[in-house]
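Morning run. Coffee first, then this:
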Amino acid sequence: MLLATSLGSTWAATRNKTSSSNALNDSASWSGGIPGGNDIAAWVAGSATSNALGADTSWLGIKLDGVASAVAITTGNTLTLGSNGIDLSAAAAQDLTISSNLALRAYTGQVWNVAASRLLTINSGTFTRGLGSSLSIQGAGTVAVAGGFPANDSTGILGPWITYGTGANTRYALRNGSNQIAGYTGTTVAAADAVDTTGAANYEVSGVGTLAQEPRSTPCVTQEPAAPSPEISP
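And here it is:
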């Protein structure tokens, strides 16, 4: 396992998108080779800005830094993203629209970091969350969702798998009335012994204090001593 982890880090690379309008599974679309599951696909100065996947594709993540205008991954096939997620945090980033199907890689936590004034639009026909995957939405930009992106559950959030914000400002995420991802602002429980018996409420515990558990008595178990072994006369 240690060997596999080390090799994965060694092989990881950033592949820059070229000016080619070919599909993203074509070597002409990339400098240094087609990005794979351990690579970051980057749009930079001179990159073409509208391309189809061309085939089901897996990348470690996406980064926009220096590209001249908004980027679009058009409809068709499925894009699976790993732990680097989507990075629109650079000063020279642009807006990004993903219209292909989209999947979060299983057993992977990822971040979508969208800087202020930037727009990330997820317009995927299907959205799949791999087993054990999680997502953190960060930055002051806007994440708009449509198509097959999930709706809120019965408690008013998208689910415990997705959060919004960082540090003390981290909240569960919801899909608001404008079809944008936002932070849940429901009830904050400050009092002790708050109990929900409906299973339909979300609570964010704020402030300082200690969560205590009532002491539990432990029964004493007594075992009878074993009978002595009989003496054997010579």
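The radius of gyration is 25 Å. Good start to the day.
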